[in-house]
Design a protein that fits this description.
heterodimer, A: about 800 residues, alpha+beta, Aldehyde Oxidoreductase, domain 4, Aldehyde Oxidoreductase, domain 3, seven-stranded mixed sheet, B: about 190 residues, Ubiquitin-like (UB roll), DNA polymerase, domain 1, globular
């Protein structure tokens, strides 16, 4: 028998390339005759663009072309709407997508106005500095509430206001539930997310081959197939003339989704227009200004509970910052709206949001994709209600969990995938028990915290839970081929940005075909290799593409068994696949290798009979009816220095349920990496815009990512509730680690500072991100207020 | 195009010819005098394993060793590196054998997207040359200038500590089938 590989922590098959510097990233593509592109970007957040004077730049040696909106002729266009608004009754949605180059207005600092093409990057950037964009600055729209006030300046002149969308979803009767409530707690919450800050900036290399009439684009995208489809349509080419390759990608986290960024639309056009390969590699400042982000929401929310702390209902009104354009539709605020419900039974819910255009960088999903915002609101409301009722945070959560017998759980809302929000499966209480046990909740509260306080140390503990809708459709496909060498090729359309797809997909296929992992070769992210698919986002790669690989491998397995049963004159039930062979069980010497079988399946003599196909190959698609709901509980212990308000994480526990696990090593990496981003979001990272719409901290010196010293060891535990929505029982895991860290931080820091005799008994943390500065402001306000 | 790569026509006058010793091999390259070591390694020597992440010295993705010391190659002029020993990730393995750091990274899953990894491997190599038995805190300190957005660092710190143990001869080198899908050995934490 071959060793089992599915479910095992096998080493990643992509690592030899990555660890030796051989892996190809977009910036490593070097083509003969390649030209380099630099962009002139708006320095104003909002302004009327009167014209562009590029004469001096065009005259510089080494400059091949300067392109403005005017030079694009009929190619000038707005990018596609990637996700249309979901079918929610009464929905208002105004579609305004980004343009290739600004023509009459600039709507955020960093918006591209002109592109310079030159013989080198240096020459292109020097020339760009000589281009004069004649902009009359306009009052920028920065603040979310003022954006909707009457008389506010408008980001899009043709709209009556800055309202991008208005959505209300409700179930039950919140007003009636509120009347029955023993307690109602309501607050204003603000949650700001941040920059994905992948270590690799964006980049594009495009080549037009005039002889072959083929366009090849290397693109740092998470979704090469939608990019291929869109570029073909925009350029008037057949899809078969466009090949988009997403090679190794240095981190995606959402903003590298199929965005149709201005640069992504322009570079392929330039390559065709100029007949020479072109390259643009984003610099770090551009990444802060021009790569999409996730930012602030302001929630006015209240929770109605009965005397035992059971949730009667939730009412929420929130504003969502869309930035200057809304190409990704309403995915982020819909996620906030739906994920707020968490793992809890919420019989009555009334949620309404307004998405707002502002003169800031575009907002699209970044790891968590709005789920953080909703989870923060709900978890904080539960903490506040627990405090009023004298319950502890563990108990109020336990009392409100959806019980295991109540699945599938219908919420009666529309989710981001346009289907009803239904939790397929889950078992929440064991995860809570495990997390509470691992963190030592009781011991901490009874012994460690009092002891520390006696020693003058302020320690606090927190526990939060969350769900994550993962693995949404529409579908992915995979092709599995047994080659005559015995190598098994697996090809799928999704891109990969570090998730270990070369390994996990190989594990799925190797298990089906009884071959060693080293005989399985996985290809992802190349539209020349696989035609159909969507991409890697929404924690869906392993779920949707993984199940497509599984289905294709199962179909090949059937072909193997059928052919082998003819050749070996045995019934298929008596055959087994192992060690790269198929053989009659218990009959030594009966084996035929898969390579030999593949050769016999594609004979040089003899016809392919009707109803059969040559080769041992299958292409199969998998489309889940809806997303699978993963869940988890995070707990942590912090120490807060009451003088400096620095927070040190002493312990961090994650108990997670993502259904069946393909590779625990990869899963743990996803979880811990997510936690690190959650910690950054909670305590280090904030995009700071001034009143002029200028991003003040667009560098790693000023926008602080967690470093090796800032991320504690993360202890993980698992609950496995397989999803009934796919044959492998998988739920996604990519975003989970990053989702609940904000409310966890808030709860634990509050626990450390309240009741410590510091005059901070009224401390409530209603916002994320925090920082030592912000904590100082919050605590100082209380101390001042208490003293006066 | 007949011109050599990475040469600005407008900057002909300021081109220099220099021999860089990279991973024990001499590379004679012609480049504009203002080009950084990062650019010349990638574009002149064709060694693209070293990555650029910010070109401002803020992220550590481009770290290489200059005479054994980690430097940010985006802040070093290539001309300054002439006459010094440059080491990049491409020179880490010996023949087909992975360096213990590389092997430990694979064994523990310390790389995800892999973009920051070359800079971290080189910085860690310099650390271990100077301090064969670093504590976790010393490893974190040494890597404080290397940003990683995928892993959360913990596996990286463990992998460096494990590689140190291998280099001290206290741990077995990982089995040769390290990349053939074999189950992981038990790792002492």
């Amino acid at each position: 028998m071959a060793r089992r590989v599915f479910g095992e922590p096998v080493r990643r098959r992509e690592d030899p390339r990555l660890l030796t510097g051989r892996a190809l990233f977009v910036d490593d593509v070097e083509l003969p005759g390649m030209l380099h592109v630099a962009f002139v970007r708006s320095s104003f957040a909002h302004g009327r663009l009167n014209g562009v004077d590029a004469a001096a730049a065009r005259a510089r040696p080494g400059v091949v072309a300067v392109i403005t909106a005017e030079d694009l002729g009929s190619y000038w266009q707005a990018g596609p709407l990637l996700v249309p608004p979901p079918p929610i009754e009464g929905i208002v949605f105004h579609q305004r997508t980004q343009v290739i180059l600004a023509r009459d207005k600039v709507r955020h600092a960093g918006e591209p106005i002109a592109a310079v093409v030159a013989e080198s990057r240096y020459l292109a950037e020097d020339a760009a500095a000589e281009i004069y964009a004649d902009v009359d600055p306009l009052e920028p729209v920065v603040d979310l509430e003022r954006a909707l006030a009457p008389g506010a300046p408008r980001v899009h002149d043709d709209l009556g206001s800055n309202l991008a969308a208005h959505v209300r979803q409700s179930k039950g009767d919140y007003a009636a539930a509120r009347r029955r409530a023993r307690r109602v707690v309501g607050r204003r919450f603000t949650y700001d997310h941040g920059a994905a800050a992948a270590m690799e900036n964006r980049g594009i290399v495009a080549r037009w081959d005039g002889r072959e009439e083929q366009l090849t684009v290397w693109d740092t995208t998470q979704a090469p197939i939608p990019i291929r489809n869109g570029l073909a349509r925009m350029l008037g080419l057949a899809e078969s003339q466009v090949r988009v390759i997403a090679p190794f990608i240095g981190g995606g986290f959402g903003p590298k989704i199929m965005m149709f960024y201005p640069e992504e639309m322009l570079l392929p056009w330039l390559a065709r227009h100029l007949g020479r390969p072109v390259k643009w590699i984003e610099d770090r400042a551009e990444n802060f200004f021009a790569t999409s982000q996730e930012r602030s929401q302001i929630h006015d929310a209240e929770l109605a509970v009965d005397g035992e702390g059971r949730i009667l209902g939730v009412r929420d009104r929130f504003l969502h910052d869309s930035g200057a354009y809304d190409p990704y539709g309403l995915t982020v605020p819909i996620n906030s709206q739906c994920t707020l419900l968490g793992p809890y039974r919420v019989p009555n819910y009334d949620s309404e949001f307004k998405a707002v255009f502002t003169n800031k960088t575009i907002v699209t999903p970044y790891r968590g994709a709005g789920r953080q915002h909703g989870v923060f609101v709900m978890e904080r409301l539960l903490d506040l209600a627990a405090r009023e009722l004298g319950l502890d945070p563990v108990e109020i959560r336990r009392r409100n969990y959806i019980p295991p017998e109540d699945f599938p759980h219908h919420h009666g809302l529309i989710y981001q995938d346009f289907s009803e929000l239904v939790y397929d499966s889950g078992n929440y209480e064991p995860a809570l028990d495990q997390a509470v046990e691992m963190i030592g909740w009781r011991r901490f509260k009874e012994e460690e915290q009092p002891r520390a306080r006696r020693d003058g140390r302020q320690l606090g503990i927190g526990v939060v839970s969350y769900v994550e809708g993962t693995g949404i459709g529409p579908y992915e496909g995979a092709r599995v081929t047994v080659e005559t060498s015995g190598t098994v090729s697996v090809t799928t359309g999704v891109g990969t940005q570090g998730q270990g797809h070369f390994t996990s997909f190989a594990q799925v296929v190797a298990e089906q075909l009884g071959v060693d992992l080293d005989r399985v070769r996985v290809v992802t992210g190349d539209t020349g290799e696989f035609h159909w698919g969507t991409g890697t986002f929404a924690s869906r790669g392993a779920v949707v593409a993984g199940n497509a690989c599984h289905a294709a491998a199962a179909a090949v397995r059937d072909k193997i068994l059928k052919l082998a049963s003819e050749l070996l004159e045995a019934s298929a039930e008596d055959l087994e696949l192992a060690e790269g062979e198929v053989r009659v069980r218990g009959v030594p010497g009966s084996a035929i290798t898969l390579g030999e079988l593949a050769a016999k399946a594609n004979p040089l003599r003899g016809a392919v009979r009707p109803g059969t196909e040559p080769g041992l190959e299958a292409t199969t698609y998998f489309g889940p009816a809806r997303g699978a709901t993963a869940s988890g509980v995070h707990a942590m212990i912090v120490e807060v220095d009451p003088e400096t308000l620095m927070v040190k994480i002493l312990r961090y526990v994650v108990v997670h349920d993502c259904g069946t696990v393909i590779n625990p090593l990869i899963l743990e990496g996803q979880i811990v990496g997510g936690v690190a981003q959650g910690i950054g979001n909670a305590f280090y990272e904030q995009l700071v815009y001034d009143g002029e719409g200028q991003l003040l901290n667009a560098s790693f010196m000023d926008y602080l990512l967690p470093t090796a010293s800032d991320v504690p060891p993360v202890e993980t535990g698992h609950v496995v509730t397989p999803s009934p929505l796919n044959p492998l029982g998988i739920k996604g895991a990519g975003e989970a680690g990053a989702i609940p860290t904000g409310p966890l931080f808030a709860q634990a820091v509050e626990d450390a500072l309240r009741g410590a005799g510091l005059g901070l008994e009224q401390l409530e943390i209603l916002e994320i991100p925090l920082s030592p500065n912000r904590l100082f402001e919050l605590t100082e306000a209380l101390r001042q207020g208490g003293g006066s | 195009m007949s011109e050599p790569r990475n040469v600005e026509p407008a900057a002909e006058a300021s081109r220099v010819t220099a021999t860089l010793r990279v991973n024990g091999e001499d590379h004679t390259v012609v480049f504009p005098v203002h080009h950084t070591l990062l650019e010349v390694l990638r574009e002149g020597c064709g060694l693209t394993g070293t990555k650029h992440g910010c070109e401002l010295g803020e992220c550590g993705a481009c770290a290489v060793l200059l005479d054994g010391r980690p430097v940010l190659s985006c802040l070093v002029l290539a001309a300054e590196a002439a006459g010094h020993e440059v080491e990049t990730v491409e020179g880490l393995q010996e023949g087909n054998r992975l360096h213990p750091l590389q092997a430990a990274f694979a064994d523990l899953g310390a790389a995800q997207c892999g973009y920051c990894t070359p800079g971290i491997l080189m910085t860690a190599k310099a650390l271990l040359a100077q301090n064969p038995e670093p504590t976790a805190e010393e490893i974190e300190e040494a890597l404080a200038g290397n940003l990683c957005r995928c892993t959360g660092y913990r596996k990286i710190v463990q992998a460096v500590a494990w590689a140190a143990a291998i280099l001290r001869g206290e741990e077995e080198r990982p089995p040769e089938e390290a990349f053939l899908g074999s189950p992981l050995p038990e790792v002492r934490r």
